[in-house]
């Protein structure tokens, strides 16, 4: 979050801020200067919610209308900003005291809450900090953890997305392009060699690209999440060794395979963003696209029906999988802003939103947006593509529970070591990979430099914190008995 603070300080001028908020106002048809404690007619309360789910705009309008119908004194302004603009706009809004009442933030995984607390961006869910027991019971046992969504006896967040089905690591295959290439869409690539052979056929027999792989900014995460789990997982920190790991052999080997695909002409050319790559796939201009559970709703919003593609597991190295996708308690995504003057009203809305049989849940599943942590997915999911994703994810070893360091060392909830280590270059791993990919350079030297920067800060800060009395060390992040393809069970944590 220090990086966000620096970005906000350097980027903010009166002109830039006015222009940015005016852009949001134009896109959403609302006045960004309207106070959050009053509606347009001077009566009631207006709650502002921000996220970047463009495909859910119409759904959010329905939710806002229904909530206002049930709570006439509350008007919901739900704004969706493009993801690339969101990370710039939100810090500016906080700095200028024009932040929303509720906002979406998930970039920091299990460190989400701690970073947001350090940045002073969030309040507890309720004025007292405690939430009713019937609220907590909407989630499986163990969903609320000190250091992840609770701190100092107060609850700040809640799991929005569940973590078995939801996440990256699925391969979407275009039926038409595969058919034009003489390939069997019902027998998609299972190994890295299969993938290269399929790409060779697509390149030889069609005018389409093989893999629509975005690489602008952090967008390389799409193909990374679809290939890296074959050797370890898609994370950039190795919980077996307690080290940042973009320079380790598994990461380098995965990147070299991506680089080989690029050199062979199997990745769509250009430094593209995800929107462009998704459009390529949906327009039958690419055979394969790697991404996550949310894609069926995205394809639907683009008019690309579920009978035009299949969802498949990610391909593994020819020698077999030695890793798996990660499963972590990191689904905490909606937060009440520290700037909100309407904490109680914001809580009322979030409490209503997460009712397992409520309006939000029913409409969310009706639209096929994905899987929620507080609802019965087996009962509510009907989208064929999403059902297939669930079937894939339920395969033993496809997605496994990672160790959770804060459960081993509770004082990590107060530690800034990991936060400080990643603050200087929060997207550093993707930056060095894109540099190596675009410049056709070896990854290892660039990665090793980044890892050294991160590890030096990480270990130094842990030692400083331990000297001040915190029970923290590198050992808190080290789980040598963990197997990358197996769940790290709760009974392994020392009590």
TrEMBL record:
Keywords: Signal. Pfam families: SBP_bac_1. Residues 1-27 form the signal peptide. InterPro entries: Bact_solute-bd_prot1, SBP. Gene3D superfamilies: Periplasmic binding protein-like II. Transmembrane segments: none annotated. PANTHER family: ARABINOSE-BINDING PROTEIN-RELATED, DIACETYLCHITOBIOSE BINDING PROTEIN DASA. This is ABC-type glycerol-3-phosphate transport system substrate-binding protein. It comes from Kribbella caucasensis.
